[in-house]
Write a structure and sequence with these properties.
This protein is α+β, with helices and mostly antiparallel strands and about 90 residues long. The protein contains 3 helices and 5 strands, in the order H-H-E-E-E-E-E-H. Helix content is about 45%, strand content about 30%. The strands form 2 sheets. The chain has a 3-stranded antiparallel sheet.
Length: about 90
């Protein structure tokens, strides 16, 4: 599903314009990004949780040269599906 498909679905379900539904989607995504950027977990009951996790720095082998490459530490977002979402897709 693309962002536009999501906007179309929200507009249809809420009986609002696509422009208003687009603003709703943008507001939700902005809130998610803001909380995750601040290092906070975002839980949506029944859907799942998004958690920022720090991946430590490590060394990996380059497949081209066979030498070691340093990969810096970074923050990634992990998603864990909620029980109701899992029930819906199974």
């Amino acid at each position: 599903m693309s962002k536009q498909n999501l906007i179309d679905t929200i507009a249809l379900e809420t009986n609002t314009s696509k422009a208003e539904a687009g603003r709703m989607v943008d507001a939700v995504l902005h809130g998610l990004k803001s909380e995750l950027a601040a290092g906070n977990e975002v839980r949506i009951v029944g859907f799942g949780s998004f958690t920022p996790v720090t991946r430590p720095a490590r060394q990996v082998r380059s497949p081209q040269t066979g030498g070691q490459i340093n990969v810096p530490a970074k923050v990634v977002v992990k998603f864990k599906a909620g029980s109701k979402l899992l029930e819906a897709v199974n």
